[in-house]
Each structure stands twice: as C-alpha cells, then as structure tokens.
Amino acid sequence: MSENKEPQAAKFVYDFTEGNKDLKDLLGGKGANLAEMTNLGLPVPPGFTITTEACKVYLESGEEPADLRDEVSAHLEALEAKMGKKLGQTDDPLLVSVRSGAKFSMPGMMDTVLNIGLSDKSVQGLAAQAGDERFAWDSYRRLVQMFGKTVLGVDGDLFEEALDKAKAAKKVTVDTDLEAADLKKLVTTFKKIVKKEAGRDFPQDPREQMDLAIKAVFDSWNGDRAKLYRRQERIPHDLGTAVNVCSMVFGNLGPDSGTGVAFTRDPASGHQGVYGDYLQNAQGEDVVAGIRNTVPLAELERIDKTSYDQLMRIMETLENHYKDLCDIEFTIERGRLWMLQTRVGKRTAGAAFRIATQLVDQGLIDETEALQRVTGAQLAQLMFPRFDEQAKVEQVARGIAASPGAAVGKAVFDSYTAVKWSRSGEKVILVRRETNPDDLDGMIAAEGILTSRGGKTSHAAVVARGMGKTCVCGAEELEVDTKRRRMTVPGGHVVEEGDLISIDGSSGKVYLGEVPVVPSPVVEYFEGRMHPGADDADELVEAVHRMMAFADRKRRLRVRANADNAEDALRARRFGAQGIGLCRTEHMFLGDRRELVERLILADTQEEREESLKALLPLQKQDFVELFEAMDGLPVTIRLLDPPLHEFLPDITELSVRVALAESRQEPHENELRLLQAVHRLHEQNPMLGLRGVRLGLVIPGLFTMQVRAIAEAAAERRTAKGDPRAEIMIPLVGTVQELEIVREEADRVIAEVEAATGTQLKLAIGTMIELPRAALTAGQIAEAAEFFSFGTNDLTQTVWGFSRDDVEASFFTAYLEKGIFGVSPFETIDKDGVGSLVKAAAEAGRRTRPDLKLGVCGEHGGDPESVHFFHEAGLDYVSCSPFRIPVARLEAGRAATQSAGSDHR
C-alpha cells in the first residue's frame, strides 16, 4: 500500500535565482525576466517575486493567502543575510523597491514604490553610510511622496505643488538643485500632507511599509487606468499581477550615478544602433515620468565609458538570448552598473516589420517565427497616409519622433477635454508637458500626443507605441500652459485650445494648422506603384514585401474581396485578392437606375413588372461582364438582391413634404403620390427582419430570375470571348432548405436556357449565405441544396445577439465596453462563444452532408485580425473583406497557419 502524502502547499514566493523567462504566467514578465538575467550571470540586485497566484487569491477573497506573510518573511531574511544588513535598520539600512509585474507589459498602469525602509531614524544611517546627506533626504522625500500617492491615496498634485514651492523659494528650476536642508524641510511638509489627507502618520516601521506597498500593488491590478489599458490592449482581466521586491540600488548618489532605459534597436524605426535615454543623479521614475529631459544613451560613453562598454555587451547578450528587440532598465551606482529589468520591447509597426526581417537575415529566427513578430493591426497602421512633403507648412517645433504617423487635430490640454471633444466627432491632439497614467483616457481618444518633455522612453512614448498612436515627445521649444489651456511656440505665437495643429511622429516635427497627407508607400507597393528591389524602393516596403511573401507561402485560408464593381475588383486584385467573396448587387441599382427600380416597385400588373425587369437585364449583364473581366480566372460570388425594397424609394418624410407642397400649390404630383403609397405599403417596423433577401425573390416574380439570367448571359459572353468567368450565385437570408430549393430550381432552369441559347456550357455554383441562427442550426439540411456557404457574420451577429447594429453602437456599446461586458465590439471581432459556435456547428454539419462544401465568410469580420485566426481554426476555405483589408487578412492567415502554442509576442 502506498503511503498517503499531504498535498504540497502552494508556493507563493520565488527568489530571483529560482525562476526563468518561461514563468511569465506565475512570476509576471518583470519577475520572470529578472530571474532570467540572474541565471545569465548579469548584475541584478538580489530580490524575490510574489506570484500572480497570490494576487488572484487576494483579489478573489479580499485577503492575502494565509501562508504569504511567513513566506515573505523567510525570503526577506534570506535577502538580508545576502546583503549583510536588515530592512530599515538605523545604521546602513537595507532598502527595497516594491514593483508590479504582470504577464504582459502595462507601462505605468500599476504601482511602484521605491526606497522602502527609510524612516526618520534610518535616513540618518543612510546619509552616514553613503557619505551624502543630500542623497539620503532626496530618497526619503521620494518614498513619502510615492507611498503617499500610491499606497495611501493622497492626491499626487499636492506633493508636486509643495516641491514646486520649494524650488521657487530656492529660485531653482530642477529638483537636483535643492540641497539637503531643503529636502529635509520637504520631507516634513510631505509628512504633514500625508497626515492631513490620509488621516494617519507616514509609517515608520519598515515592514509595515513593505506589506502595505505589496497590498497596494495587488489593488492596482483593478485600478481604473489598469482596467482601461487592458481593455484597450485586449489583455485578460483574470491574470493578476506579480510583485517584485528588489534590493535598492541608487542612481541619485551624484554625478557618477544615474539611471536609464536602453533599447537594443530603435523601437521607432527598427534600425540597429545605440538607442535610449540616460539621466545623471536620478532614480528610474525620473526617466519614464519625463519630468527632466534626459540625454541620449550615446552620451553615457563620454560620462562613464566603463559602464557604457559593459552595458553594450549586456545588450548584445540579451538580444541574442531573447532573439528580439529588448527594452532594458538600468542604474549606475557610483560607477557600478546594475540591471533592473528587461523585456521584449514594444515597437512601432514599421520597426516590427524591419526587425523581423533583420532577425531572419541574422539567423536568429526563422520565417515561421518572424510571422509571429508582426500583426495585421501593425500592417494596417503602415497603410495610413502620411504628410505631403511638398506642401507649404509652418513648422514651429521639433521634438523626438516617438511613435510614427501623421496626426491632425484640435489642440486640447487635458484628458477630459480630449475624450469629450472626441465623442462629439472632433479630431484632437492631446498636448501636455508630460503625460502620466491618469491621461490614458485622453491618449486613447486623441489622434496623436504631443509633449514638451520626455524622450523615447517616457510614459507618453511607450504607451503611444503600444497603442499605435502618433506621438512627438520632448518638444522643448514649446511652452505648454495647461492651466490657461494654451501653448506658446517659438516666435511668441500662441496656440489656444481648439486651434488646429499637425504632428509628424516619424520626424518629430510640429506644424501649425492642417497639413495635407499623401498615400503611404506601403499602399503604393500594394497598388503596384512601388517595386521592392528598385533603386527608389522604401526600406520598409522591402520588409513588408518579404513578410507578405512569407505569409502567402504559409497560409491555408484564401483571401477574397468584397467588391461591387470592376474598379474595386481590379484594386482588390492588385492587393492580392484571390477572387470576390461578396458582390452586393443592390449597389448596382442605385444612381441613374433608381428610376427603373421605382417602376418595378410601383408596377401594378405583370406586364409592367416584366417591362421593368427587361429594362434592368442588360444593365445588370454589363455589370457582370465587367466584373468577370476584372476577375478573370478567379471566383466571383454574386449575392442576389438582399435589402428591403423601401431602401430604393425616397425617405417617407421627404416624400410627404413634396406631396403636401404639390397639393398646396395645386401642381401635378401623381407619381409622388404613388411613391408615397408604395412607401406606406412597404413600411415595416423592423425591415431588417422583414421582406428582404430570399423572401423578395419568392414574393416578387421574375426578380431573381432576371439577375440569374444576367449572370448566366454575362458568363456566356465572357466564355465566348475566351475568358474564364467563375461565377457563384449566392441566395441571401435563407432560413430553411425549402426556400433555397425553390429559388435553385428556377435558377437551374434559367441557366439551362442560356446554355442552350448560347451553345456554351456554364459551371455556375449555387450556394447561400448563412446569416440566420436557424440556417446555422439546420445547415446539414441546407447543404443538400447548396454547393457553398458564405457566413454573413454581420447579420448573424445581429440576429444572435438581438442587436440592431445601426442603433446599439451609438446608444449603449460605449457603456458595455467601459463596464467590461465586451472586451471589444462583437461587430468588430467575432464573438467566438456565441456567433462563433454557430459558425463551427454549421460548417461541420454542412460538410457531413456535402464533404466538398466550400466555406467562406463575407462579413466585416473577414478582415479583422483576431477573427481571421478563428476562421482558420474553424476550417473555412476563405475570408472576404474590403480591398483595403486584403493585405491584413493575407498576413493574418499566414500567422494563423504558423501560430505556435503560447506565443507571447504582442
């Protein structure tokens, strides 16, 4: 008999020597990477990580796990033994930082507290040990300020105002000019602020400081800004955050100390070189907050060549180890380099494509992995227009090109106004001295972000790059006055709130007024106007070309276009479309043909109806001839008339006014009166669930017959002209197989007549849209009469959810997104659990009946990156989307085919 063993207790704390980079789920990104750097033998200050599992227990129960305090105590004792000093002891105290670290990077969204362990007594010991009284009091004032704001919830502006007053009294502009006596007074002022605002004294017990800071980091996972950031970046809400407790090293010990952020490649362009920011005599928060302007990392070679050379070696080690762009935080303490963090760095869309191809060329990754390093969303960003270099512009400043793009909008100076104006339809540029996490709402709402302080590693730059927002940072020439809602540009010109400005995130230039834009070189490449390999080819185009070639070789899903005319079809073909997945014939009935449709709707007799249809037939036929010519040799799926007939008639209110005016003036109005009667006759309370789609074909004799005949005759004409038309006829809004059988029987008869009359054999496939829940649930029956299914996910989403898209997006979707009911609109990304389960079930049932059933999707989800992956997994044959989205769908189809399990690249 085997011996019963007690279940092993959960382990909630890991020393940095115990983890590795693959434990991000448990240790968070920061903790896992600190452990990995420790394993690599890099200079990492000792410390330990409290796991995400501990955070989850706390968030679910409101209490920390029962064993957590004992585990933390054991690891703290081990850390104290390693460092040879105790937390907060009065002589030579051990100080620690408490920092958040979730699985996915959330820059600035959660909480950090530095210098824990300082108190009225230990600050004296720190001063004596360091031989620098100013440093000790500077560290203490930072602790009281960060602890007060982060842990005790004191308004951070109160501390900033007190600091500004202290500098003003001393007649200095930067905090490094404050002396020890000034900082000592500031600590007293800060503690008074804490007492007044928090209702308690600043804690003097170092262990209480640490425990409260750990709890505050746990709580910050559910802070408003963290939840908003997760929704924006589609990060799951149930992951929790780890907490890293790390022995402090100090960059604020004088000119031979400092702190910085470095990138192994330029996160804005992808180019190799020395990129980053360094700040002497500072702690890490000073760099990312942007409150003091940094110097370029290359300057460190002059300031401290030994540390610089060591840093360059470490950066090379980390990039080769992670096989990717690394974002690194470091501190130099009196000439000694310490590594505080590394992670796979956020990058702009252009940098992502360049870096992926560079790493392939260097042999660090293969093509399959390269495809996981880029996304369809990034490719879409690269297809946006950019400023016209030939335009007459008034440049007023130049900052740091932090996140590329061309953004034009009205200047606003706070987050609230940015959100308010954006919701009213205004395009805005958020202008700040520097942003902080509280500005996230405004950053999301704005077209672009402009700051007068900070560099490529400031909060504004990092968050903007992650969101794909245009950003210019550190435009020092601008004097931003947020209280008066204005900024002054060189020469004295004042930009008031509401004035138009333009910012170029690729060059860092800032312009007055609206600058015209020109097409992206990537679009010119897809249009065939720029050729990779040519002398004038854009380097970015070369990278995009190669990644698209990788994707096309790997993907299984074919990509078609939603196109209704030859012009759109030809453009789609240039963009790589492999056919048309949706031609909406109703778009052919507008313009100068509307009168013919009105005559059809108003027809009182069979003869009048046939006369109208006879007039429409040659026009429809010519439409299809042009379409087949543009897409020769590729499938063209043509949807028969779908929308309610009232959409082809004038608006009921407008028509009523016209009739009333004609009657009052005693003018002839017989036709308007007939139209008004028809509008009333066709009026439905909910027309999207009324007489439309296949129902029209069954109720209005000859309508679908005319369209099928036009398709068949156009195909016969093209075949006679040695073309290769591949038409597919799609019946919309089918809910039962009997509807499809009746329409199909008539269509087959018409096709046979055209074949006999032209002596041409036509191979016209007949299928249906699956856009009603009943169609999805009875797909096995419907497949008996259908050669293909095309999922109309727009209508399927409406009917599954009971949403009227035209109404709900404007009325309550914003509230649903804010409350977390949706992570993203179900009209933007397919609802996998609801709509998606019907798609999968219908696909499986249809193929059980007809194994060779062709399956596609033609709703807007066909061009959505995340949805493309779902359709690949569901076994569909193709997706169809607007011409502009075709490259995105091609890329994502390749990524879906090569997706490795558990890839963390975002």
TrEMBL record:
Record domain PEP-utilising enzyme C-terminal: where: 542-894
Pfam families: PEP-utilizers (PF00391), PEP-utilizers_C (PF02896), PPDK_N (PF01326)
Domain of life: Bacteria
Needed cofactors: Mg(2+)
Residues bound to Mg(2+): E771, D795
Residues covered by the PEP-utilising enzyme mobile domain: 426-508
EC number: 2.7.9.1
Single GO term (MF): metal ion binding
InterPro entries named in the record: ATP_grasp_subdomain_1, PEP-util_enz_mobile_dom, PEP_util_AS, PEP_util_C, Phosphohistidine_dom_sf, PPDK_AMP/ATP-bd, Pyruvate_phosphate_dikinase, Pyrv/PenolPyrv_kinase-like_dom
Catalytic residues (UniProt): H459, C858
Keyword presence, Ligase: no
Catalytic activity: pyruvate + phosphate + ATP = phosphoenolpyruvate + AMP + diphosphate + H(+)
Domain Pyruvate phosphate dikinase AMP/ATP-binding residue range list: 61-293, 301-350
Binding positions (substrate): R584, R639, E771, G792, T793, N794, D795
Broad enzyme group: transferase
Keywords recorded for this protein, A-Z: ATP-binding, Kinase, Magnesium, Metal-binding, Nucleotide-binding, Pyruvate, Transferase
Family indicated by similarity: Belongs to the PEP-utilizing enzyme family.
Alphabetical list of PANTHER family matching this protein: PHOSPHOENOLPYRUVATE DIKINASE-RELATED, PYRUVATE, PHOSPHATE DIKINASE 1, CHLOROPLASTIC
Protein name: Pyruvate, phosphate dikinase
Organism: Streptomyces corchorusii (Streptomyces chibaensis)
